[in-house]
Amino acid sequence: MKRYVISDTHFNHSRILEYCQRPFDNVEQMNEVIINNWNKVINEDDIVYVLGDFCFGNKTMLKEIVSNLKGRKILICGNHDNLTKNAYYEAGFETVTKSPIIVDSDFILSHHPIQGDLGKFYNIHGHRHKLPSEAQFSPRHFDIGVDDHNFFPHELEKVEKTLRKGERKTCRTNMMRMKRKKSLKELLLELFR
Q1: Are 185 and 32 in contact (CB under 8 A)?
Q2: Contact 30/76 with Cβ under 8 angstroms?
Q3: Is the CB of residue 150 less than 8 Å from the CB of residue 173?
Q4: I need a surface site. Which of 70, 112, 114, 169 has the fewest CB within 10 A?
Q5: Which 8-state DSSP code applies to residue 59?
Q6: What ranges in 42-178 are assigned the alpha helix state H?
Q7: What is the pLDDT of residue 173?
Q8: Alpha-carbon distances, residue 138 vs 7, 107, 121, 142, 143 (angstroms)
Q9: Structure pTM?
Q10: pLDDT of residue 121
Q11: Residue-wise pLDDT tens digits, 102-146
């Protein structure tokens, strides 16, 4: 069993394509790529910490997305996770919380970056979608949002090691700085070169 983190998938959110200049033709294509990427790295017994802004839509749409994703899912709600806690449990999440979670004694998992002095802690978060913030320049923060990470979940242990070594930028990619939208075929070919 491994543990993974991911944030800001925004399943079924068509306007995120424009807001974040995601390289997909439509929301169906985005959903398909993120689901496929997720299932390529996650096994059924793996734990996935979802750091908010998971899915738009009603309970039926939520259940459809969750049923297509491998792993044991824990949700730290973001500002766009507006269904009831019970809806997320019914969809298949094992844990649902609005509060940050501390893991491995030094790492705070949250949706929003935690501002101010973190003391001994590191903060793995989402929410920023490549927008500048105080946290972006802090060696104790790591934005795990899919917009900066090729729409894949990342192994928690590797993110922790990256933060401890002060090499936070090594997990970042340049893929999303493309000038034009690429087709699904082009995206998939690029991901597997």
Answers
A1: no
A2: no
A3: yes
A4: 169
A5: H
A6: 59-67, 85-91, 156-165
A7: 38
A8: 19, 14, 12, 8, 11
A9: 0.84
A10: 94
A11: 999 999 999 999 988 888 999 999 987 665 555 456 788 899 999
Whether the predicted pLDDT of 39 surpasses 70: yes
Q: What is the pLDDT of residue 129?
A: 63
pLDDT at 179: 35
Per DSSP, the three-state class of 28 is helix
CA–CA separation, 114 and 108 (whole Å): 9
Angstrom distance (rounded) from CA 3 to CA 144: 14
What is the C-alpha to C-alpha distance for residues 98 and 171, in angstroms, rounded to an integer?
Answer: 26
* Whether the predicted pLDDT of 9 surpasses 80: yes
Q: Which residue has the tokens 């069993």?
A: 1
User: Identity (one letter) of the amino acid at 2?
Assistant: K
Q: Determine phi and psi for 187, rounding to 5 degrees.
A: -60, -45
Residue with tokens 């734990």: 47
C-alpha pair distances (Å), 150 with each of 9, 95, 114: 11, 26, 24
Structure tokens at 82: 């507006």
Q: Which two tokens stand for residue 61?
A: 């749409």
Residue 174 — left, alpha, or beta (φ > 0 → left; ψ -120 to 50 → alpha)? alpha
Two tokens, residue 54: 């998971």
